Amino acid sequence: MVMKRLLLLLKPFGVYVPPSHSHPQILQFLDSRHKVHHDAINFCQAILQKKSVEWKAVMRNDLSQPINDVDLVVTIGGDGTLLQTSHFMDNKIPVLGVNSDPTRFDEVEQFSSEFDVTRSTGQLCSATVENFEQVLDGILEGQFVPSKLTRIMISVNALHLSTYALNDILVAHPCPASLSRFSFRSSGLRISTAAGSTAAMLSAGGFPMPILSQDLQYMVREPISPGAVSDFMHGLIKHDQTIDTTWSSKKGVIYIDGSHVNYAIQDGDIIEISSRAPSLKVFLPHKLL
Question: Coil, strand or helix: which one is 231?
């Protein structure tokens, strides 16, 4: 496939203004993050100017319609930018993630005891400014092949939701302190893909999965009676299986890949979850493969 049309999706520049009495090193760190991201965007655009391709740049927050009529999407930011972009993509167009602001180990070693100096993890991003041109050339010349990442399909009362989850979903009461009632009682149900198994799922006690696995991992959060149903609290949903559950509280929410995309549910709604969503083509880092 000859790639001639590219779309750049950009992480917005930070708008957080810290208090004036903040530690000078924190202010310097935030200024550095802003500058590094800005420079990365300019660098990538300068590389594209040299290539025989058509391209345009759009802020990720300005996306409102499905992405069509391009051959490649390049996200510049981190995993969050790639995640948000994936909600507007089908299984035809591949995406390349560029980590614009990778964590610097010298900063971690020097300042981690004073404040959080984590920048961007960018686990799904196979490029930085250091290798962007090399990776891009490999893609344009057909040397690199995208991997297919499993996504989650959600149906409510047999109607498919329009958004697929690349990382995970959480089904829970809109109030974190309230009880979530399914056929069991807990504080919610989390389901992750292989790509999302190293995020919130791992922090909650789950396990990492091979990145190309088509299975899903589920975990019931804080079950009220764990002893009686412990065998069903955590496990896998195989790629040919569907999990069905009925929501039994007055209000509920399905959160998709975080809190920004969510759908309200109500008492009696039947929720079906499977890995039958269209996969997402991603040029992954070699370390994940």
Answer: helix
Neighbour-count burial for 259-278, b at 16+ CB within 10 Å, e otherwise: eebbbebeeebebbbbbbbe
Instruction: With beta carbons less than 8 A apart as the criterion, state whether 265 and 254 touch.
Output: yes
**Local confidence band at 153 (pLDDT 50, 70, 90 cut-offs):** very high
DSSP string across 130-159: TTHHHHHHHHHTT----EEE--BEEEETTE
DSSP type of residue 229:
T
Say which amino acid occupies 141: E
Q: Please name which of 242, 254, 274 lies closest in space to residue 151, comparing C-alpha atoms.
A: 274
Using DSSP's 3-state secondary structure scheme, residue 18 falls into coil
* Average pLDDT over every residue of 192-216: 96
CA distances from 106 to 186, 220, 286 (A): 42, 39, 24
Nearest alpha carbon to residue 183 among 135, 112, 246, 244: 246
The stretch 226-250 carries a mean pLDDT of 84
pTM for the model stands at 0.91
User: CA-CA distance, 9 to 277, in Å (whole number)?
Assistant: 23
- DSSP letter (8 states) at residue 230: G
